[in-house]
Write a structure and sequence with these properties.
Blueprint (H helix, E strand, L loop, with lengths): L2 H17 L3 E7 L9 E7 L2 H17 L6 E3 L6 E6 L2 E7 H7 L1 H4 L4 E6 L4
Helix pairs in contact: 1-2
Length: 120
């Protein structure tokens, strides 16, 4: 897969999350600081139900575009759902877990491709 495909996956995921009213949506370009992925998409939901809905929408929209996850973890608890699309990792947090794990600070050196700070 070419580099533009990874960015496309990240943007589709971010748009899908926004469609389900996710907030504090970010796309981070982590290529220069880690080998585990090229892009992270990070977003938040207010409730377990909303977090699950965001994950379903992300998976649906990416499936429709021909991109399929290698693995999805955390769906049952819906506190932090991690969707692994190889070089793109989508993190969907319940707002309390996002504050606790603070990935935004951990990956602060990453270039922000997108940042939408709407809060619910």
């Amino acid at each position: 897969m070419v580099e533009n495909q990874y960015k496309k996956i990240a943007k589709i995921a971010a748009d899908a999350a926004e469609d389900k009213k996710a907030f504090d949506i970010e796309i981070l370009d982590v290529r220069e600081i880690t080998i585990i992925a090229d892009y992270f998409v990070i977003c938040s939901g207010n409730t377990d139900k909303q977090v699950k809905a965001i994950a379903r929408e992300v998976e649906k929209k990416l499936d429709e575009s021909g991109f399929y996850p290698k693995q999805i973890a955390g769906k049952d608890d819906a506190r932090w759902i991690l969707m692994d699309y190889a070089d793109v990792i989508v993190h969907i947090f319940h707002k309390k877990e996002r504050n606790y794990y603070d990935l935004d600070r951990l990956w602060a050196d990453a270039e922000k491709i997108l940042k939408k700070e709407e809060t619910s």
